[in-house]
């Protein structure tokens, strides 16, 4: 279910409006993809066009995590990400769905839980079918044999967060009142209400995904860019340059 942006109390002038990236930097962060290669290609066209209007010499494209599950093109999406994006340094963050894929490779017993997260669609994109009567151990074996080594390395090398200027980028959010170097990976990938409902100043504006909303959410301390692309067809990116901010979307 989408988290409505209209269910929040209207904030005072957000600190997000005063946050900045360093001079001569252009930073673009893209929300949760969930196997929607089609939307990524559409959004990339808009990002590329917008970037051509900037004179910034350092350009960073950050993906907020959750590349797999639910959508039908997880394998193809990862392959596209590995191709890179001309003119941009790329940063790939880890999402909870990406972590679940890695856990399945280590422990097929979580297969049923992964099914509920949309894992069957991911398996199918790699040519693996989990049919009736087939054990999750068998499915895991097939998946491990068909998963390209480059894709496995991609998932294993995903970062937990990235900092640029006054912003920190992370998949789910931060646990309030916990220093960055003491944050638990499980919170960075899974946290919801404790972070979303907090008015705590995290030291930087947190740009995150994980919890879909009807539109980008801008609060005093955070910017949410997950707009439920896999079910809405609306993939969102935030473009940051100096103290300016704009949103690009596929709908």
Could you explain how this protein is built, in words?
The chain has about 250 residues and is an alpha/beta fold. The chain has one domain: Purple Acid Phosphatase, chain A, domain 2 (4-Layer Sandwich), CATH 3.60.21.10. The protein contains 10 helices and 10 strands. The chain has helices at about 35-50, 75-85, 95-105, 110-115, 120-125, 135-145, 150-155, 185-190, 195, 230, and strands at about 25-30, 60-65, 90, 160-165, 165-170, 205-210, 215-220, 220-225, 235-240, 245-250. Strands 3-2-1-9-10 form a 5-stranded mixed β-sheet, with helices on one face. Strands 4-5-6-8-7 form a 5-stranded mixed β-sheet, with no helix packed on it. About 40% of the residues are buried. Mean pLDDT is about 95; it is low at about 1-15.
Write the SSE topology.
Elements: E1 25-30, H1 37-51, E2 58-63, H2 74-83, E3 89-92, H3 96-106, H4 111-116, H5 119-125, H6 136-146, H7 149-156, E4 161-164, E5 167-170, H8 185-190, H9 193-196, E6 205-208, E7 217-218, E8 222-224, H10 229-232, E9 236-241, E10 244-249
Parallel strand pairs: 1-2, 2-3, 5-6, 6-8
Antiparallel strand pairs: 1-9, 4-5, 7-8, 9-10
